[in-house]
Amino acid sequence: MANYLTRLRHLGMAISMLMLVLAGTVIAIKGIPLGQDFTGGYVHQFQAPEALTQQQLQHQLEGLLSGDFQLSAHSDNQYQLFQPPSEGQSNPKWLDTWVSDNALVLLDSSFLGAQAGDELIDQGLMALLFATLAVMLYLVCRFEWRLALAATLALVHDVALTLAVLVLFDIPFTLTVLAAILAIIGYSLNDSIVIGDKVREVVRAKPAQSVALSINTAIAASMSRTLMTSMTTLATIISIWTLAGPPLQGFAITLFVGVLVGTWSSVFISATVPHWLGLSAENYTNQDSDEVKRQLAQP
User: Fold this and answer.
1) Domain count of the chain?
2) Which segments constitute the Protein export membrane protein SecD/SecF C-terminal domain (predicted)?
3) 233, CA 20 to 30 Å: which among 102, 110, 173, 298?
């Protein structure tokens, strides 16, 4: 059974690395679809008759507009049409004709500037980099450098796969999606810390036992807690997804994917990478005082 779990962890690790490469390839080829918060653009809000569906409006706009656009639904048959700065204009001629032909009610047409400029994006990326380095330093001091590296790799894996899903389904990267990404980072680190703490506890308590068996024991001991946390979190996210409406769908989808891949990586990356890097009981016992060793040796 122990050998089976070890092989399963190694297979999961290989799959994770393959998915990470594929995610990086998708992001590099297609690019992250930045939303209105980062690009600014032209926004047209209108109300449509009940007989017109969003699919019909989308089809009509595809025939009228040659550039990029996003049509999103709001309550009471109200819709919002967004065009990037390079594609749209305020009160274009085609809009008046289209509104008149379809008996639409134009509520607003305006240009909105980007809420997050280039300088703010650069500052945010620098803050994210320093925060990641600070977390790695904490994990090195708290656990061991192999576990710190595994937690960082799991974090990169979770964020990259989540961004790849956004790219594949053309979900705009807005400020709410950015907030979800930051939440995923915290969630991923929390899962990695739980697994790392349990691995350290088992390895220190049973130094004569093989590291592979100790890691399997740690995973089995923390699995119920990990699954219960993930299930309750996903239930809340699904509620937001289905009940909060279109404005929060990107936020909910991002969190949903992030929690799923975070649970996966906590088992197959956070617990497996230290094993691959040669984690052993000596890495901990050499740091323990004689009093700690005596306490760990007690049944």
Assistant:
1) 2
2) 107-277
3) 173
pLDDT confidence tier of residue 168, bands split at 50, 70 and 90: very high
- Alpha carbon 148 to chain centroid, angstroms: 20
Do 267 and 189 lie in a common domain? yes
Using the CB atoms, write b or e for 25-49: b if 16+ within 10 Å.
Answer: ebbeeeeebbbbbbbbbbbbbbebe
- Residue 75, classed as helix, strand or coil, is coil
Pick from 90, 78, 79, 74: which is nearest to 40 by CA?
90
Residues 250-294: tens digit of each pLDDT: 899 999 999 999 999 988 998 888 888 887 767 665 554 444 445
- What's the domain range around 292? 2-34+117-297
| Distance from C-alpha of 202 to C-alpha of 219, rounded to nearest angstrom | 10
pLDDT at 8 over 70: yes
* Domain boundary pick from 49, 84, 112: 112
What single-letter amino acid sits at 205? A
Indicate whether 92 and 229 sit together in one domain. no
Contact assessment for residue 158 and residue 258, using Cβ atoms and an 8 Å cutoff: yes
Please check whether residues 23 and 170 belong to one and the same domain. Answer: yes
Chosen domain end from 112, 133, 154:
112
Residue 198 sits in the same domain as residue 56: no
pTM: 0.78
Tell me how far apart the alpha carbons of residues 244 and 256 are, in angstroms, rounded to a whole number. Answer: 14
Residues 198-250: tens digit of each pLDDT: 888 888 888 778 888 888 888 888 888 888 888 999 999 999 988 877 778 88
Are 20 and 161 contacting, i.e. CB atoms less than 8 angstroms apart? yes
168 and 283 share one domain = yes
Q: Which CATH number do you get for residue 221?
A: 1.20.1640.10
Tokens linked to 74: 């709001």
Helix (H), strand (E) counts: the chain? 12, 4
Q: Could you tell me which residues come within 8 angstroms of residue 94 by beta carbon, excluding any fewer than 6 positions away? A: 64, 65
What tokens does 288 get?
Answer: 């323990």
